[in-house]
Amino acid sequence: MFGFFLFLSTTAVTVIIFACLTIRQYRRVKRRDAARYRVQSHISKTTTSVSFVYDPLDHSLYWYPVAFSHEIPCGSRRPFGFHLLNEPLCLYRRNDGDIICVLDLCPHRSAPLSLGQITKDGNLECFYHGWQFGAHGQCVYIPSVSKNSNTASLICARTVPVHEQYGYIWIWPGKRELADSILIPHKLFDGIQGDHSRFLLSPETVCDLNIPYDLMVDNLLDWAHIDFTHDGMIGKRSQACCIRSERITPSSYLSKNTESFSYKMQRHETSSSMKFSNFHFIPPCFIRLEHHEGVKDDILVQIFIIIPSAENKMRLLMQFYRNFFCYKWIEYIPGYDYLTERFIMKVVDQDIQLLNGIQRNITEMGAKPLGTIVSADAPIKAFRRYQSRALMKYETIYLKKETWTTAKKTILNESEDMDIEDLKLE
Predict the structure, then answer these.
(1) d(CA 311, CA 93)
(2) Beta strand 275-282 with 162-165: parallel, antiparallel or unpaired?
């Protein structure tokens, strides 16, 4: 009898724990899903036609999705620090839900603002001296200055244009007057997002890596390495065979960016002509892979965004969509996110081990990132041609350090040697 009651007690406890974990996972999924529908539009302040100012080879003239929306939730007390094109930036979400992006540098003593915190009023507080910055980066409070002083109104952290859509937070690193939301690669998500989409999005995954971003682009455009580098995971060495590439002309992405390209990749020995993959690249760092699995019209869509954080540093954001086995309840199973992310990161770790070796050979031995090529390497060759044209024109894709300046009002620029508290507004 005692054993029976022990069994019932153990079963009850197990059921309760499982139910609690399921509820917790359910709420996590709902918060993540809600974040994907959040939209904060950047309003362009110029009427200049994009066609006259847009150069697809200039890496500063792009919107970069630096983080998923759910990474910076409402109510978070910690700002989000990151690098983009060698520039340190900081994101924080105010109480009204709006995202603000500022240079990760306090106008006071150049301390990283990302080390601070978000106050109850939704302001970004510097960790060094407690200066607070509100909407548009405007300084709203300085603890060491008299409350009757107007000093704070003279100070503003440098802000960067920000846009939120498709579950991402997009940053424009170039000239503010050229920022226009029509330059966001909306077609990247064509057919896979929206209320009428028949695709299910699996958990999103992000990781920061210490490798050059262009090597990861090479790797993700390389279908032939799957069966060897990822043997036993997502590939199988025994199934490796000839891969043929055929450029899709015109690319469906060409009208939005003249440097975009698309390839149809297919295993030559495959028994079905219905099984193939389309590789799409949109400069400077967007990859969409569409894997068509056969007569059932099963499609797996992989979105990879490779953010060039700094030299030899990058951020990889991944999304996976499918139109088969679309059972939403699977995401509510406790441990689903953990197991899925762990599997994806195992695959990424296999790539990192290889790419670190390639980077070593390039830096230490002067090796080329692209040597003797075959048909399967056509997408990589197309990317390297684009990259070479960009480097020949601009020398580097990264922003120069002299651009790291904080925004100051005119009265300060004319009085840089004066104590700011001695300034008086007319």
Answers:
(1) 28
(2) unpaired
